[in-house]
Amino acid sequence: MKELGIIVCAKQIPDPEAPLSDVSVDAEKKEVIVDAPQVISPFDENALEAALLLQEEIGAKITVLSLGKKVSDTVLRKCLAAGADELILLQDDAFEKLDSHSIASALADAIRKIGEYDLVLTGRQAGDWDSGQVGLILGEMLGLPCINLAGEIKIDDGSVLVKKNIPEGYERVKARMPALVTVSNEVGELRYISRTKMLKMLRGASSIPSWSSENFVTAKEELQKMWIVEISSPPDMRRNCELLDGASPEEKADKLAAVFKALQ
Amino acid sequence: MSDVLILGEVKDGSLDIKTLELLGAGKKLAGDLGVGLSMVLMGDAVSSAAEQAVSYGPVRVYKLEHPLLKGFSADLWLASLEQACKKINPRIFLMSHSFIGMELGPRFACRLNTRLTTDCTNLSIDPEDGLLLRTKPVSGGNAISVFKCPLEPQLATVRGKVFEPAEAVDGKGEIVDLPPEIDESMIKVESIEVVKEEIIALDKADVVVSGGAGLGDEDGFEILQDLSKALSKSFGSVMIGCSRMAVDKGWISSDHQVGLTGTMISPDIYVAVGISGAIQHLVGMIHSKKIIAINTDPGCNMFKVADYGVVGDYEKVIPALVKRLEEPS
């Protein structure tokens, strides 16, 4: 049997765990300014982990695609250090602030260019725009069976089997491959990568292929940007926190117990 | 015809609360545009829900009934909805940002070549061009953005518990049958089994004791369980919550997850233990009446939004607290 081919789409975004004080809004430029390092969007890391679990179990060739105006290979090389076989950066000025439909359309072009694959995995939503659309639209554009919000993925005889949470419990579903699956965090966090592995990958001589729109986008003129009317700051969430001090944990616990009693 | 259309969802035979909220949101938009409000209902038997829907005042309730629409098969629901929308031709189409809306929305947008804005918290009409202004929190909740798109149907999914639910009126709308033309060959994703489980209803809790990555391991939840038990003697319904990280680490099931992609809650008391407070988590619990944070890092976000804070090791503080709470006063 030929090796399973998995394509994982991973987006680079400013760290969504950034402290509140490092995030601001530039209303004039209509931009969210996050003073934090770039990372792989958390649900996309879950998608990569799902791919790595399948690789361990039955063997698979994992190709990671990352699309953006500018994609840092130092951030994305983490995917290779974790165990992905190939990384392709899809970068072009034309990819700045695209709407979900256009991102999906560009990714679909890239995937068609790659040609052979069994499974396309994406995170359920990205941590910058929280839109949750690209994966499903991509599946529609490629004409694939779409499975949303996977918590566990297995392969059986040409089919993908997914366990997903539903409001009343869980459901097991099955689709013939090739298929598209969006991944939720129940899959588990991306495995730990040792410092040695990470450094080896960062210093590795291998150059990472980078495609610009000319290399793969079939209808560049159809790419559309998001139409943002305005961006503003949310209502201030901060409260005045009363810190309960004490010389020992018991003293702090006493003060906390008093707070609970007062709230009864 | 260019109505405002909403997708109703039925739970246990009647309209769910999110649908009533959608009716509220849709009515306002229809009023602003001077057009009618209509509703689509899908399922294997939705007649009584359709009767109920009429009493909320839509001009028309479209009934998409088919034996295959029992349960939720996205492929069949999508095909039915696509057929119906091509006949109804709505100007605006709204769905809940529910399990169903989250999957149907993007796929539907692609099939009708329009653009969707998900998880909207406000909707209005731009008086200049009549387009739908879609307000949505972005960047986990760090900013609020307003989007627009010229394509029709103007499509949005709507966050729950934001819009006021509609109230029943003396409705005279008509029920229109639009039987979908679907068959089993359209099913690409086959359902093997649906297993009902006891799902924790976090949004019903009076107090939520929540744990995150700072717990260090799975056993930390046992300590939180002890606190939960001690508090339940004085506070009614006390439940265990968690951050996304705790689910990622496999320590607890995701029905306990609080936040943007978990449950949004507003209990009387929220106790955050070892949760640094990523914005996606904060937006899910910030409306709690009182917030208590226990964390070793005095600089973490959670202390900035808490009312009371303890900087310290929860493994020492919580057992001492439980002991104190259980002493006869």
List keywords for this structure.
heterodimer; A: 264 residues; alpha/beta; Rossmann fold; 9-stranded mixed β-sheet; two-stranded antiparallel ribbon; 15 strands; 30% helix; B: 329 residues; 7-stranded parallel β-sheet; 5-stranded parallel β-sheet; 9 helices; 27% strand; elongated
Describe this entry's structure for a reader:
The complex is a heterodimer of chains A (264) and B (329). In chain A, helix 2 crosses helix 5 (195-203). With 264 residues, chain A is α/β, with parallel strands linked by helices. In chain A, the strands form three sheets. Chain A has a nine-stranded mixed sheet with strand order 11-10-9-12-8-1-6-7-13, with helices on both faces. In chain A, strands 2-5 form a two-stranded antiparallel ribbon. Chain A has a two-stranded antiparallel ribbon with strand order 3-4. Chain A is built from seven helices and 15 strands. The N and C termini of chain A lie far apart (65 Å). Chain A has helices spanning 42-58, 73-82, 100-114, 134-141, 195-203, 213-216, 249-263, and strands at 4-9, 12-14, 23-26, 31-34, 38-40, 60-68, 86-91, 119-123, 146-156, 159-166, 169-176, 179-183, 210-211, 228-232, 242-243. Chain A has one domain: Rossmann fold. Chain B is of the alpha/beta class. Chain B folds into two domains: 4-186, HUPs (Rossmann fold), CATH 3.40.50.620; 202-326, TPP-binding domain (Rossmann fold, 3-Layer(aba) Sandwich), CATH 3.40.50.1220. Chain B has helices at 17-33, 47-54, 74-88, 99-111, 220-235, 244-248, 279-285, 301-305, 314-326; strands at residues 4-8, 10-11, 14-15, 37-43, 60-65, 92-96, 116-120, 122-125, 132-138, 143-147, 154-158, 174-177, 189-196, 207-211, 238-242, 269-273, 290-295, 308-311. In chain B, strand 17 (290-295), helix 8 (301-305) and strand 18 form a beta-alpha-beta unit. In chain B, helix 3 (74-88) packs across helix 4 and helix 5 packs parallel to helix 9 (314-326). The mean pLDDT of chain B is 96. Chains A and B meet through helix 3, helix 4, strand 9, strand 10 and strand 11 of A and helix 4, strand 7, strand 9, strand 10 and strand 13 of B.
